[in-house]
TrEMBL record, chains A, B:
Signal peptide: none annotated. It comes from the Bacteria. It holds the Pfam family ROK. InterPro entries: ATPase_NBD, ROK. It comes from Arthrobacter psychrochitiniphilus. This is Sugar kinase. Belongs to the ROK (NagC/XylR) family.
Length: 342, 342
């Protein structure tokens, strides 16, 4: 009776030979120059996943992070990228016999139809309506979590990072350009792949006209505008900030213009969506208090009876996109496993 | 056998004595001066309702529409309004023995916590954190569909009106002021009660600074700004439009400023949310092509690779709010009936 009981317990737990092999997701973040790859472990909670409720627990770990050149091939870049993903998946499998790669996550830039797994358009990478999910699912025989790079990073910050438990969130990644992810009432907005393009929204410009937001507020714009104003080349926005701290007037003006542009867009989100949490990521967010404090003050001036948002630093760093696509891939894997047992 | 068959059929259809009494929702739209009441019939499809999927069918009818002064009582206005709703519900019941009022819908202006049924704040009506749903549910013993007036109107346009089948929608009601409702990925956004305040978002103003959007784009602003510019009093925005059509330069400028302000806000929504459909309601929307055509053209200038939205006239007229709250009330009634039979 005792032995039968033990056997039953072992069966119920599902523990067998496979217990030595850990389930993992291999994630890819496709950029205009490089593609990153890495194994994402942990942080994925039990069931639920992206389709379910907020609050997946556990520490997340990215293992064996690699960078490779993105195979650029004009309009055929989609197929080339997929072929490279298949090749790298084989290499990761050989290199990590201790892991069972049970799903793949992929993020791409541009306009992305996440629902149908299609890269609609990318100016830098060249594809038009390329079916990433279908191509990779067929080639790999695995569930594929496919999404927009900043969208997936935002999703990761919302599920595991700086905005856990918040329902109305704007994630802004401020680097060379500016991209955003928008969470409303506890769900990230897709808008058919067109949501989150806050860097390309109009804002009032210092000359009294209008400008694209990222032409004033991005790290790239801060450096470029300082050089244009003074003729002095700088390595990046960090130098401009240092000069502003020393009292350089041109640097202070360029920085104030950037804050005005960012604040204007934040205030639009608050007015239209009731945004309560602003997550700032990307290179410019490293400015810390020099960014957060004047930004909050300027947003405040642009609002009346509205909510006042909280500002937090992105928590998951530059691997947020990998983690987000892995979360999505894992939830698809869990769903297909459930179907399999049903 | 024939008779038994007939009896069975009658039982299955659920037709009995109650079939002579039609289920109806009594809806109230509470404004700063008047409160509207009306019986909402039809248009409510089968199950589903507000919580379910898009696509409720059938013609909607508002019967015995009444207007009464809103009982204004400072901070106690919430209680006074509820008392009046209870009183009017009794009157409607007496006057309509052919109807069974099975649920009540209520819309209010201001900041509204729909999830918890609370009127958070209304500048015109005076309440602060008044528990409308709890108060009315207790007093009436009926399910109460409670919501923001423009939010419920937007919901009705999305479910039954101008935006049926669309997933990314901005509803703008342009009257004395401007309020909005935002639908993203097929769900209206609440933002804790703070979403949709597009009339209070900042836009670039003609003097090179910034202004609250409704101070330039509303019907009230158009009339007021024309009079301020010319010293000539006008009855409303309609007069200004007529003057613009005749070539009056000040009227043309004021109208162009209004278009610029409205277009700026529409373009913000498109950039941030991928809005595909813009529903225009309220008095100013009666301007028709004089509004729609320059608005679409101006929005187009403010966008680059973004979606281009379609513009449609609100379909449900000034009773959209009543209809929206009735839809919500009906879905709550259906849900509670289902619980009762489970």
């Amino acid at each position: 009776m005792n032995r039968a009981g033990e056997t039953g317990a072992a069966d119920d737990s599902g523990v067998g030979n496979t217990s030595l092999v850990q389930d993992a997701v291999l994630a890819f973040d496709i950029g205009g120059t490089d593609m990153k790859a890495g194994i994402v472990l942990g942080g994925l909670g039990g069931e639920g996943g992206l389709g379910g409720e907020v609050g997946l627990g556990g520490e997340v770990e990215v293992r064996d992070l690699q960078r490779h050149p993105t195979p650029l091939d004009g309009e055929r870049s989609g197929a080339s990228v997929c072929a490279r993903i298949v090749e790298l998946t084989g290499q990761y499998r050989s290199a990590h016999p201790e892991l069972k790669i049970s799903a793949v996550g992929v993020t791409v830039p541009g306009i992305v139809d996440e629902e149908n797994g299609i890269g609609v358009f990318s100016a830098n990478l060249g594809w038009k309506n390329f079916p990433f999910t279908a191509t990779l699912t067929q080639a790999l025989g695995l569930p594929v979590g496919f999404g927009h790079d900043v969208g997936m990073a935002g999703e990761a910050e919302f599920r595991l990072g700086a905005a856990v438990g918040k329902t109305d969130v704007l994630v802004m990644v401020i680097g060379t350009g500016i991209a955003g992810a928008v969470v409303c009432d506890g769900k990230r907005i897709a808008g058919g792949g067109y949501a989150g393009e806050i860097g390309h929204a109009m804002v009032p410009s210092p000359d009294g006209g209008m400008a694209i937001m990222e032409s004033l507020g991005s790290a790239g714009a801060v450096a470029r505008r300082y050089t244009a104003a003074t003729g002095t080349p700088v390595a990046g926005a960090r130098d401009v900030l240092a000069l502003a701290a020393e009292g350089d007037l041109a640097a202070k003006t360029v920085w104030a213009d950037a804050i005005d542009a960012l604040a204007f867009s934040v205030a639009q989100c608050v007015s239209i969506l009731g945004t309560e949490t602003v997550v700032l990521g990307g290179g410019l967010s490293m400015a810390g208090a020099a960014l957060f404090e004047p930004l909050a003050a300027r947003v405040d001036e642009l609002l009346t009876f509205h909510r006042r948002p909280h500002y937090v630093h992105a928590a998951l760093g530059e691997n947020a996109g990998l983690i987000g696509s892995a979360l999505k891939a894992r939830s698809l894997h869990a769903a297909s496993a459930e179907e399999g047992t049903a």
